[in-house]
Backbone:
């Protein structure tokens, strides 16, 4: 095989305030023709920066300070802007994490597809349109003749991600950088996109750099894996070799993340009054019905995981329980007593008993307030503590979430990491001394190691304070590690519910089965086996077969 | 499309209500000013009899509420009444008091078209100029060109209008006699000559409104440059100019259109200083003169025109903003 891309001793820096801080510290990378390299690491590892550098591109406020990038003999760091533009899109293409954000909302999909081939004089507009339709068909997009003539907002996320892959293919590049292309997708959609990417890369013999934080995903896609940590290379090896014999401690710790599992708790007495009982609620926005007769109970000291794809109505249930969205029909009981459906009609004590932790800790904390003020507010509002008592209570809470009070009391949220912010979110919920907490995708924006820390914290708090959790998630690994009972939702209905053991052992409801089997596994043959098992030689039929 | 239609109907309805409220406000405000038309026109040495006689002739002796409804009844039927000032001159000359020639409509109409002509010429120069400058400033952001454009437009918006007008007269009419410094427009004038005489005031107004539109264009575009879809366009090898014009501008249109509408409304309603400097016979001067002599019917009519201009331009801007949003144009 011949060498396509050679990056030697690459150093990259990013500007923060007035100084340049290192992002990538002297990494070597090379790629042969037709090879797929997986780049993995947690957020902040510099994966995306490295991927963009392979295109000779830096985001604003980032610079390559040292090293060389040669693509097919061309020095990308010394090439003129015009020379680089003649390569980008034509010979090196990029597939971004969020297709929804990376397609221009003002133009139709096919107009954006043909832009590259036309401006690089690869094809005429008409040829490129024809080619786009063929690519859409290859990627098994529904209605390939027409789908390109829609605007991005008229097409679903998974379909857009495939359309973006088609767009990257439009000039038949030699190299494609895939930057977390499936991270924003549901597991069931992810499979289709993964399979179609792999299919088309094989078919055209394209080289690729596949960036992800998900080991199981990279195992399906890459020939070789490179692990990054905070801008340094940890190790590189062939996929199978690395999966079976990781050399470094850090690599092994990435493997181990999914192993956190709580011991099963004894079954609940059937006679016990549940803390929260949701009874046949139906709800919706304006004229659209989102929930249809959803019912489940949450008992003291237990965790009920509500799982389903995006759009299944998980978060709407949470909005109903908190009273933000009064359901049209149904009853919500707390300790056997029916709650007013509208939060404005609930007493302060009723409000205090149910708290919420949010997915995006970033946006859920007021950036202008210090940690002490953020946690102090519910302490004062619900518990009536002031002055020294309030401060002492906030310090206790900070201890609970394992952040030293003397260091964190006066800090602003912007000075904390993602995991620390989520801990502050937990402390704020605890401040009200609730009996029930809704956790809405609390770990999905976090790296696996950090997420595991949050899950362990929540588990410990549950044991100490007898809290009940409703855990909204689409990640079945999280469910496996923390849930006692599981409620599976689809299209606003509960399709299956029961204890975790029941849920994870067959027989399953077909939809639960689809969800479970779609979670990627470390085995590099998993995807191929799964597709074979589902009775399809290539991707496309999976889409057709899905959910029939 | 039904959304757009609904908005148009709704907003036009609200617009009528607004016009009604404006007319009450203006009527009350002018009545609260010290003195009335009779005193203003007869001056210091007027005898009480003369004042009373004029008041009687014009109906000013009747209670304000009655006068307002009288005016309103006429306005609804399209009759904006007669100008006090014109009626008065007619009676001095001794002709019949049948003041059809002195109707407000007849008095305002030519002035209104002059104002629209000036606003139109200015808009045709200023809007493309500002948007282009804004695009170029965004393209070459932080360059010398960008800084120069910012300083130039900011200093022109910060200078008094008459000062800008005199500078332009100095350079374009006095030192280099290219353009006439007086805009004495009259009816029946040829288009070319009319345009020539309108050019200097139009250029002055261009300097006044450019900064706002140009800076909004620049800011709205730069605001989008960090978007993932702009990065995507750059990673496809798209040229910087095309990135801005094709990928950023269509998504930045809404705020730009709104600022343009505001500035166009200003061109119709607020250019009295420039009119005075160039002796341009527009509606602004007429308005100020009418307030001075408490010529209520004319003041009312001018205010209604101003209010209508704001309402219609803002409505147009909103509709164009909606049309520039593909999510609303092409629902799922």
Residues:
């Amino acid at each position: 095989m011949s060498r396509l891309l050679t990056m030697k001793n690459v150093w990259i820096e990013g500007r923060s305030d007035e100084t340049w801080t290192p992002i990538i510290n002297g990494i070597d990378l090379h790629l042969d023709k037709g090879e797929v390299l997986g780049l993995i690491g947690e957020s902040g590892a510099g994966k995306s920066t490295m991927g963009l550098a392979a295109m000779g591109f830096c985001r604003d406020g980032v610079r390559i300070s040292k090293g060389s990038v040669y693509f097919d003999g061309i020095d990308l760091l010394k090439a003129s802007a015009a020379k680089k533009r003649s390569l980008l899109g034509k010979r090196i293409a990029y597939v971004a994490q969020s297709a929804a954000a990376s397609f221009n909302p003002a133009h139709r999909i096919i107009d954006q597809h043909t832009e590259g081939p036309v401006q690089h004089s690869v094809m005429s507009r008409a040829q490129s349109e024809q080619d786009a339709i063929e690519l859409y068909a290859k990627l098994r997009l529904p209605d390939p003749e027409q789908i390109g003539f829609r605007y991005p907002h008229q097409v679903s996320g998974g379909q857009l991600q495939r359309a973006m892959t088609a767009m990257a293919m439009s000039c038949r590049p030699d190299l494609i950088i895939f930057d977390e292309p499936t991270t924003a997708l549901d597991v069931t959609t992810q499979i289709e996109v993964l399979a179609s990417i792999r299919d088309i890369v094989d078919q055209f013999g394209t080289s690729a750099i596949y960036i992800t934080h998900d080991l199981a995903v990279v195992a399906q896609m890459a020939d070789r894996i490179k692990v990054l940590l905070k801008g340094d290379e940890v190790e590189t090896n062939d996929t199978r070799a690395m999966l079976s014999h990781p050399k470094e401690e850090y690599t092994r710790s990435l493997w181990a993340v999914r192993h956190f599992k709580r011991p099963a708790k004894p079954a609940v007495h059937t006679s016990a009054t549940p803390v929260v009982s949701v009874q046949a609620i139906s709800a919706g926005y304006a004229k659209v019905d989102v929930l249809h007769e959803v019912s489940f109970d949450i008992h003291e000291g237990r965790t009920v995981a509500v799982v389903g794809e995006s759009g299944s109505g998980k978060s709407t249930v949470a909005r109903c329980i908190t009273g933000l969205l009064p359901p049209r029909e149904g009853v919500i009981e707390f300790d056997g007593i029916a709650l007013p459906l509208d939060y404005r009609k609930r007493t302060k004590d009723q409000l205090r008993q149910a708290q919420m932790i949010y997915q995006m800790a970033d946006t859920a904390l007021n950036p202008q307030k210090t940690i002490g003020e953020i946690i102090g507010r519910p302490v004062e509002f619900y518990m009536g503590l002031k002055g020294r008592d309030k401060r002492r209570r906030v310090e206790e809470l900070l201890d609970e979430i394992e952040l030293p009070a003397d260091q964190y009391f006066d800090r602003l949220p912007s000075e904390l990491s993602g995991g620390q912010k989520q801990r502050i979110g937990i402390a704020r919920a605890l401040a009200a001394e609730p009996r029930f907490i809704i956790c809405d995708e609390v770990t999905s924006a976090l790296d696996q190691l950090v997420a595991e820390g949050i899950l362990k914290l929540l588990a410990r708090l549950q044991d100490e304070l007898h809290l009940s959790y409703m855990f909204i998630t689409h990640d079945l690994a999280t469910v496996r590690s923390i849930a006692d009972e599981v409620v599976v939702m689809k299209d606003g209905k509960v399709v299956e519910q029961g204890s975790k053991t029941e849920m994870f052992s067959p027989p399953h409801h077909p939809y639960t089965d689809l969800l479970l089997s779609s979670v990627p596994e470390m085995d590099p043959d998993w995807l191929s086996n799964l597709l074979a098992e589902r009775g399809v030689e290539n991707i496309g039929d999976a889409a057709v077969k899905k959910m029939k | 499309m039904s959304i757009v239609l609904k908005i148009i109907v709704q907003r036009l309805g609200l617009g009528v209500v607004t016009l009604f409220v404006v007319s009450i406000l203006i009527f009350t405000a002018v009545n609260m000013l010290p003195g009335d038309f009779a005193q203003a026109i007869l001056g210091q040495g007027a005898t009480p009899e003369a004042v009373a006689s004029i008041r009687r002739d014009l109906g000013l002796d009747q209670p304000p509420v009655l006068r307002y409804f009288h005016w309103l009844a006429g306005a609804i039927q399209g009759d904006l009444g007669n100008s006090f000032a014109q009626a008065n001159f007619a009676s001095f000359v001794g002709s019949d008091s049948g003041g059809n020639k002195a109707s407000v409509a007849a008095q305002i109409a030519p002035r209104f078209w002059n104002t629209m002509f000036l606003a139109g010429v200015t808009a045709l120069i200023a809007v493309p100029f500002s948007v282009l400058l804004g695009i170029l400033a965004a393209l070459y952001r932080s360059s010398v060109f960008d800084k120069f454009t910012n300083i130039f437009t900011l200093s022109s918006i910060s200078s008094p209008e008459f000062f800008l007008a005199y500078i332009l007269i100095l350079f374009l009419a006095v030192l280099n006699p290219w353009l006439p410094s007086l805009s004495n427009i009259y009816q029946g004038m040829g288009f070319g000559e009319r345009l020539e005489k309108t050019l200097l005031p139009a250029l002055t107004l261009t300097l006044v409104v450019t900064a706002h539109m140009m800076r909004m264009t620049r800011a709205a575009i730069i605001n989008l440059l960090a978007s993932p879809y702009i990065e995507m366009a750059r990673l496809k090898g798209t040229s910087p100019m095309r990135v801005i014009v094709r990928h950023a501008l269509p998504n930045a249109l809404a705020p730009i259109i709104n600022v343009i509408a505001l500035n166009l409304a200003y061109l119709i309603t607020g250019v009295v200083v420039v009119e005075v400097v160039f002796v341009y016979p527009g509606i602004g001067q007429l308005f100020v003169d009418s307030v001075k002599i408490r010529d209520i019917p004319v003041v009312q009519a001018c205010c209604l025109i101003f209010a209508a201009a704001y309402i219609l331009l803002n409505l147009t801007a909103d509709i164009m903003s909606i049309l520039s949003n593909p999510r609303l144009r092409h629902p799922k």
